[in-house]
Design a protein that fits this description.
It holds the Pfam family BPD_transp_2. This is Branched-chain amino acid ABC transporter permease. It is found in: Cell membrane. InterPro entries: ABC_transp_permease, BCAA_transport_permease. There is one protein chain. The protein is mainly alpha-helical. It has a single domain, classed as ABC transporter involved in vitamin B12 uptake, BtuC. 70% of the residues lie in helices and 4% in strands. It contains eleven helices and four strands, in the order ααααβββααααβααα. It has a two-stranded antiparallel ribbon. Strands 2-3 form a two-stranded antiparallel ribbon. α1 runs antiparallel to α10. The radius of gyration is 19 Å and the shape is globular. It starts with a helix and ends in a 15-residue tail after the last helix.
Length: 293
């Protein structure tokens, strides 16, 4: 593998983790909730893709998106809406409990065995660009992430609802006093996080072709770590932090000796610990993280 190919793969992986971190950061912005159950949104979308891909992509992709968004809205309505005034630590514990509960639900519904299906196998092939063999999925992931980020940026900065989300993220209490409808804005952010989770699920499912009840846990943990080291209080810094973790994980996979590749996450965690000791509020954030009023 050439350095350019390794770089493209690392950028693709960084984009994937950046999208996951952005979904987590959106919800944290308005609720101060570090949502561990985000991984189960990824998992339900992956199950939907694997179980319905034989119906064709025009059926499977919308169903996966719908499953993830509906589950995100259901969690918001049934659980987090009733805990809105709870402190961040309580919300964190609740989301962790939900994550564990949903994993058991997936075990009951789909079994402990891994479910497999060749999802979008054409994307797993390589194409030749300027004499290099590059995996099609890496290019599609980078392109899709760029389009989604541009669309989300336009939505947040050019639409009334997007501006309300930004206002709620900056100062939720003041935004409510100015007329921002809390239920609408929070439900919207959960819905967007569910949509982003579905995109992450698609890429991971194409890569592995398999899904299990804990499918989304690893990517969620790493994305959450990325969001924290970047600065989870702001969408831009959370996104960059997620990208850096994904990029580093891919680069370590490429350049570490074969006997040390399985310990790549340990190297990532070690770097994260150093960063948080030196800058507890995040690598890209100036000053302390704001607390919710």
């Amino acid at each position: 593998m050439t350095n350019v190919q390794a770089l493209i793969d690392a950028i693709s992986n960084g984009a994937l983790y950046g999208l996951a971190a952005l979904g987590i950061g959106l919800v944290f912005g308005v609720m101060r909730l570090a949502n561990f159950a985000h991984g189960e949104l990824i998992t339900i979308a992956a199950y939907s893709l694997v179980l319905t891909w034989h119906l064709g992509p025009w059926v499977a992709l919308p169903l996966a998106l719908l499953a993830s968004v509906v589950l995100a809205l259901l969690l918001e309505f049934a659980v987090f809406r009733r805990m809105r005034r709870a402190n961040p630590a309580t919300l964190l514990i609740a989301s962790f409990g939900l994550s564990f509960l949903l994993q058991r639900v997936y075990e009951i519904a789909f079994g402990n065995n891994v479910r497999t299906a060749p999802v979008a196998p054409a994307l797993a092939r390589s194409v030749e660009i300027a004499g290099m063999r590059v995996q099609m999925l890496s290019l599609v992931t980078i392109l899709a992430a760029a389009i989604l980020l541009l669309a989300l940026h336009q939505f947040l900065n050019r639409s009334s609802l997007g501006l309300q989300v930004q206002a709620a993220s900056a100062d939720f209490a003041t935004a409510r006093l100015l007329g921002v409808r809390a239920n609408k804005v929070i439900a919207l952010t959960f819905g967007i996080s569910g949509a982003l989770a579905a995109v992450v699920a698609f890429v991971l499912t194409v890569q592995t072709g398999a899904v299990a009840p804990t499918f989304g846990v690893n990517v969620t943990v790493l994305a959450l770590i990325g969001a924290v080291i970047g600065g989870i209080d702001k969408l831009g810094t959370a996104l960059v932090g997620g990208f850096l973790v994904g990029f580093a994980s891919s680069a370590l996979t490429t350049y570490l000796p074969s006997e040390a590749v399985n310990f790549r996450n340990a190297f990532v965690f070690a770097v994260v610990m150093v960063i948080l000791i030196l800058k507890p509020s995040g690598l890209l954030v100036r000053g302390p993280v704001l607390e919710r009023a």
